[in-house]
Amino acid sequence: MKHITKLSVLLAAVAVLAAPLSSAAQDKTIKRKVAIGRFTNETQYAKGLFYDKENDPMRKQALDILSAKLAASEKFILLEREDLDVLVAEAGADMNKIGADYIILGSITEYGRKAEGQQKVFSSTKTQTVEAGVSIRLVEAATGLIIYSDEAKGYAETTTKQTLGVGGTAGFDATLSDKAISAALSQLVENIINKCMDKPWRSYFLSVEDGSYIISGGASQGLSAGDSFHVYKKGKIVKNPQTGLNIELPGQKIGLVSVQSTYGETPETEISFCTYDGEALDMENLGKYYISDK
């Protein structure tokens, strides 16, 4: 009888590990939390004697444009972190304390504008051109590693024409700056989205209360009652002697959590209450585990 009991327990554990995720969890997209750090303006454009770095209009332009493009994809919860440098310093090796899955760092590396005109007997034309270069780095908060880095250039121009004194004015078109920066960022946004969504979503155990397993993440990310996700035991941390960086080996799948309800008012404070089936967890060290949708 004892052998039959042990066999039954083993078969039950194997069944849990082999169980597929719920169809709802498989079909839906779990939104990633992205912290957009401070954009910097590395160019010398408009940096006069009274230049204020904190209120640089080009920096704010780039930040707003990137935020709008990522929000339009409906795949992210955006967490703007103007004090990101301070948060990173406080987090140290534990980048998860920032409260995001990914961190985006950017800078405007090039900016230039020019105006060219052509004068004829009865008409004149003026073409205004702006060129902007933008650099982006995408950091995975769980590891602190840069998983994507690239830069792109964008152009924008407008032409005004006057005939016998009638036509558009020749003043500088200030909207060209927005258009050039937007054109540069458009070349990078799709890669940012793909890099973030290709990697498995992760959540973590926060606590166990009265038999309910509480994990991070909630309704705004797309979690809802009935969803189920895999539970992994973290892999061993090894050091790559070639780079000096620590690498986490693949985790071991040990069970499933099923969402019963969600709670919270903001993305930073949302949690989900779950049931758990699988190998026994080390309740004194829940940080050894993570939850994933893949």
Model description:
This protein is α+β, with helices and mostly antiparallel strands and 294 residues long. It folds into two domains: 2-30 and 201-292, no CATH class; 32-198, 3-Layer(aba) Sandwich (Rossmann fold), CATH 3.40.50.10610. Helices cover 24% and strands 40% of the residues. It is built from five helices and 16 strands. It has helices at residues 2-18, 23-27, 57-72, 84-91, 175-198, and strands at residues 32-36, 40-41, 76-80, 102-119, 123-140, 145-163, 166-167, 202-203, 205-209, 212-216, 228-233, 237-239, 246-248, 252-263, 271-278, 289-292. Strands 1, 2, 3, 4, 5, 6 and 7 form a seven-stranded mixed β-sheet that branches. A seven-stranded antiparallel β-sheet has the order 8-16-11-14-15-10-9. A hairpin with a 4-residue loop joins β5 and β6. The radius of gyration is 26 Å and the shape is elongated. Mean pLDDT is 80; it is low at 1-14 and 90-95.
